[in-house]
Amino acid sequence: ELHVSVVTKKARAENLVKLLSPGEKLTGNVDNQLIITGPLADYRLEGQLLLTDGSFRGQLIAKGEGKYVREHGRLHLQDFTIASLNTQIAVSGTMEPDKNLNLSVSANPIDVERLHLNLPYPVKGQAKFTGKLTGTTEHPIFNGELFASQLSINHQEFTQISGQVQLQGEQLDIPFFQFRQGSGLCTFRGGMDMASGEIYGGLDVQEVQVESILPVFNVTDKGVTGRLKGHIRVAGTAKNPDIWLTGGLTQGSIKKYPLDYI
Asked: Of 111, 58, 102, 53, which is closest to residue 82 (Cα–Cα)?
């Protein structure tokens, strides 16, 4: 029967992770207070750690700290906070012996320009994510919600952004995504293959300037302006999309020729 207390300063994370989650790629310096109890064949670990100047699976971590328990092969993270790329990430939950995950995650603020979305134009601004991380360590699935007060997409300004996202491997699915352009309202449902850039989906628009919404799909307005009420269907790739537009255009023009309604 074990009952051991271990205190380490500036130890290497590579050694600690062999106890907590063998096979994971964690680096950095660790200050750790650890208590080991129970039989040698099935011991229990409980501790509190501080990680600095590290990385997890290649992602830089400036600082990470929190409590953990490992019992019967099950790892439980309690109130972990991680500082990475000027973002504060909070993580709580469990990883089972078979590597199944059940973690609650929130991140704020996120610089969306650093998310590597594989888009052919810039996306800038700060957002907040909250959600659940499930699946396994090899094939994680993130289901969550995104919120942002303002984002710039291909140099067009949008506000009051909120939506639901699911990320599994390279596949990003968006069951619901809503934002405003001026007084107009847009609602998108669709998705994207992050590796190939292939996109699909549809955008419902209410009183939105057509010349501002088309650049979201990497399409120029071809001299068409006005307020659009209708639907835009998109397919193809982010770099070379196919779009189908249906609806009505008011207070508009084509090649600078004014039109009341199209």
From this structure: 53
Helix locations, 78-181, DSSP H: none
Is the sign of the CA dihedral 218, 247, 156, 197 positive or negative? negative
pLDDT in tens, 126-164: 999 999 999 998 899 999 999 999 999 999 999 999 999
Burial class (CB in 10 A: 0-12, 13-18, 19+), 186: buried
Say if residues 199 and 190 touch (Cβ distance below 8 Å): yes
Element housing 259 (H / E): strand 257-261
Express each pLDDT in 21-74 by its tens digit. 788 889 999 999 999 999 988 899 999 999 999 998 888 899 999 999 999 999
- Amino acid letter for position 178: Q
**Which two three-digit tokens encode residue 98?**
């078979």
How far apart, in whole angstroms, are the C-alpha atoms of residue 56 and residue 113?
20
In the chain, the largest separation of any two C-alpha atoms, in whole Å, equals 87
pLDDT digit string, tens, across residues 186-225: 999 999 998 898 999 999 999 999 989 999 998 887 788 8
C-alpha span between 17 and 135 (Å, rounded): 20
> Which residues pair with residue 80 across a beta bridge?
91
Secondary element (H or E) of residue 85: none
